[in-house]
Design brief:
Elements (H helix, E strand, L loop, with lengths): L1 H15 L28 E3 L2 E3 L5 E5 L2 E4 L16 E4 L6 E5 L5 E4 L4 E2 L1
Parallel strand pairs: 2-7
Antiparallel strand pairs: 1-5, 2-3, 3-4, 5-6, 7-8
């Protein structure tokens, strides 16, 4: 019984690890994000709807609408959960880092999007 409780506790702790804590901004090496509040209300890193247009530009859906992701802000690493993720200033919407996900993202042309 004690072994079961210890295994369950360690699995829960691993799932709560903030995947963004190790992400670094390309070029500067600064952290991509601030520390997440327990209720996730002040986090600037989060899963995001994203699409790839016909010119190879990624777009993310922020609070004020679709914004292009600067190529220099794309992290070339695997998504922690196969979704796209962005770290962006909550006020200015400046994008610090972006990780595209192979699933849940859309590929768009000028005529239509395929998701």
């Amino acid at each position: 019984m004690v072994l079961f409780v210890l295994v369950a506790m360690s699995a829960g702790a691993a799932m709560e690890h903030d995947p963004y804590s190790d992400w670094r901004q390309p070029g500067s090496g600064h952290s991509c994000c601030n520390r997440m509040a327990p209720d996730r209300s002040t986090s600037d890193c989060r899963p995001i709807r994203a699409r790839l247009d016909g010119n190879g530009v990624w777009w993310v859906l922020l609070d004020t609408g679709w914004k292009p992701v600067p190529r220099a802000r794309i992290l070339h690493q695997a998504s922690p959960d196969l979704s796209s993720h962005v770290c962006a200033n909550l006020t200015t919407e400046e994008i610090y880092c972006f990780v595209p996900g192979p699933q849940g993202s859309c590929r768009c042309t000028t005529r239509r999007c395929r998701c």
